[in-house]
Amino acid sequence: MDIKKAFGEKVKRLRHKRKLTQEQLAEIIEMSPKNLSKIEVGASFVSSETLEKLLVALNVTAEELFANDYIKTPNELINDIYCKIECIKKNQKKLEITYKMLDFIISL
Asked: At a CB cut-off of 8 Å and minimum separation 6, what does 60 contact?
């Protein structure tokens, strides 16, 4: 995973943890919701000024914000698995390999 995507996912998780909508956080950090969305999906990165505003708005340190310490919940993992399967559903060979791998893992 690239750093922009990991950073964006962390911002999104922290925003959810603080029970803020994208629009609310965007307003607090003086940014358009569209630009915040781009940050959260890893399509864009923050300026130093925006980073400072994010730290204050999310009430975290830079170390906390950049730490790669997140473990996905079971529901998030399942959703990710479904998304990956959706990407390969028209490729018979990849589906067969995926099935065999899952079958092997489940049998452990």
From this structure: 14
pLDDT tens-digit map of 46-81: 999 999 999 999 999 999 898 876 667 788 889 989
Measured between its terminal Cα atoms, the distance across the chain in Å is: 28
pLDDT reported for residue 2: 80
Q: Where do the CATH 1.10.260.40 domains begin and end in the chain?
A: 3-66
Q: Do 81 and 88 form a contact (C-beta atoms < 8 A)? A: no
State whether CATH 1.10.260.40 applies to domain 3-66.
yes
Structure tokens at 44: 């864009």
Burial of 24 (0-12, 13-18, 19+ CB in 10 A): middle
